[in-house]
Amino acid sequence: MKRALVTGTTGQDGSYLVELLLAKGYEVHGLKRRSSSFNTGRIEEAVRSEGHRPDRFSMHYADLADAASVTNLVRDIEPDEVYHLGAQSHVAVSFEIPEYTADITGLGTIRLLEAIRASGVPSRFYQASSSEMFGSTPPPQNEATPFHPRSPYGCAKVFGYWSTVNYREAYDIHASNGILFNHESGRRGETFVTRKITRAVARIAAGLQSELRLGNLDAVRDWGYAPEYVEAMWLMLQQDEPDDYVIATGEAHTVREFAEVAFAQVGLNWQDYVVEDPRYMRPSEVDALIGDATKAKEKLGWEPKVHFAELVKRMIEDDTTLLEHELAGRLVRVEL
Ligand code: NAP
Ligand code: F7E
Q1: Residue 105: CB within 6 Å of ligand 2?
Q2: Ligand 2 in contact with 196 (CB < 6 A)?
Q3: CA distances from 48 to 13, 39, 226, 310 (A)
Q4: pLDDT confidence of residue 54
Q5: What are the Cα distances from residue 136, in Å, to 149, 246, 289, 290?
Q6: Which ligand is nearest to the CA of 200?
Q7: In this predicted model, what pLDDT tens digit does every residue of 277-304 receive, in sequence order?
Q8: 225, 254 in Cβ contact below 8 A?
Q9: Is 333 a domain residue?
Q10: CA geometry: angle 233, 236, 237, nearest 5 deg
Q11: N or C: which end of the chain has fewer CB within 10 A?
């Protein structure tokens, strides 16, 4: 039985990846950090999909700021595969807490790579790199496109990307970068723009909210479906040789279009509810990200199946169902 360690387990991607690895028969170890309230809601949904928590799944307290905690995990678990998804992942927030973002999102990667090196465990390593690294370099972006990050988050991810390449070259670690473009789902954090929109649409349709305040409506993004993107992470670690891959749909849409399609789904006109608010504008913006995932298609056999209209539809359906459960008081949080 293969053993995997996943950081960022409680996040969107971590929860889907745990689900995937458990379905493939892995023993899975996740990391959670101390929080004053439950932060394991998504992972509950993932591991209880069969009605119980499998024996092959464990959660451990650790923090990416605490090198000893991650080193101990790697040493004790001796994972075959390490998926490093933990990060301060919010671009706008990274302008408010740049040093913390550099520490967790940038140095956190080195802490984990050092843990693998120091333990001597031959773990394969996946780094959650990001299209944000391309920043202002014009689309389409692929593995050969130069980086020009436009946020503290983007800068930290560039550090993580090159650290991964360096540990591969210096220490012969099977370390790969997945350069993932935006990917979304009903488990997306509520303050990222897609989820902010779909959640608001569900609430407005139910008469619980009257307006939606957004920032830059002209930004262009390449939005895919998160469960398909974690499949690509797994595929990268099954290759004989480590490498770097862009994962994207190649389709471009503006934030305005996302809002338009989302409101139309419930029979509403977005212009009646969306208010432009300078509070959500960023000091420097990434105007357009559109990925070219040809290499992933050719080498990994990976291709996206869920496209824009279907993605928006699924997210609206998920937020509508979630709201119904919340209103009926059917959501109960338990510790994992
Ligand atoms: P997410 O939902 O924001 O999840 C981030 C995870 O990191 C959470 O589990 C969070 O824990 C954990 N974390 C944050 N600070 C930590 C710390 N100090 N110590 C330990 N864990 C910590 O992110 P996501 O959307 O799943 O993305 C997964 C990874 O891919 C991230 O590295 C992100 O930067 C990267 N990425 C995402 C996208 C995308 O479109 N989603 C695209 C490219 C790259 P809590 O639950 O306790 O907050
Ligand atoms: O913004 C604009 C905003 O926060 C998308 C992270 O997963 O993907 C994500 O980063 C666009 C930006 O995602 C609002 O200015 C307008 O142009 O949903 P977002 P992001 O910044 O692209 C990359 C690939 C990652 O790696 C990151 O971890 O939408 N926008 N109005 C808004 N954005 C937000 N959050 N809120 C608004 O009100």
Answers
A1: no
A2: yes
A3: 16, 15, 19, 26
A4: 78
A5: 7, 17, 9, 12
A6: 2
A7: 999 999 999 999 999 999 999 999 999 9
A8: no
A9: no
A10: 95
A11: N
Report yes or no on 206 lying in a domain. Answer: no
Report the nearest-CA residue for atom 4 of ligand 2: 192
User: Could you give the CA distance from residue 118 to residue 259 in angstroms, rounded to a whole number?
Assistant: 48
Total count of domains within the chain: 1
Residue nearest to atom 28 of ligand 2 (CA): 89
DSSP state of 124: E
Q: Which ligand is the nearest neighbour of the Cα of 131? A: 2
Choosing from 89, 179, 180, 193 the residue with most ligand 1 atoms within 8 A of its CB, the one to mutate for a pocket test is 89
- How far, in Å, is the centroid of ligand 1 from the Cα of 103? 14
What integer is the mean pLDDT of 273-279? Answer: 97
Atom nearest to 187 CA in ligand 1: 2
91 lies in which domain range? 3-185+223-249+284-305
* pLDDT tens digit sequence for 125-171: 999 999 999 999 999 999 999 999 999 999 999 999 999 999 999 99
pLDDT of residue 335: 57
Pocket, ligand 1, Cβ cutoff 6 A: 7-14, 31, 33, 35, 39, 63-65, 85-89, 104, 128, 130, 180, 182-183, 189
Q: Is 214 in the pocket of ligand 2 (CB under 6 A)?
A: yes
Question: Tokens representing 271?
Answer: 């212009």
Tell me the C-alpha to C-alpha distance, in Å, between residue 24 and each of 4, 140, 158, 269. 11, 34, 31, 43
Give the CATH number of the domain where residue 15 resides. 3.40.50.720
Residue 163 located in a structural domain: yes
Tell me whether residue 194 is in a domain. no
Pocket mutation for ligand 2, best pick of 193, 276, 279 (most atoms within 8 Å of C-beta): 193
CB proximity list for 53: less than 8 A, separation 6 or greater: 47, 336
- C-alpha of residue 105 to centroid of ligand 1, in Å: 9
Give residue 81's identity as a one-letter amino acid code.
E
Residue 143: closest CA among 131, 159, 135: 131
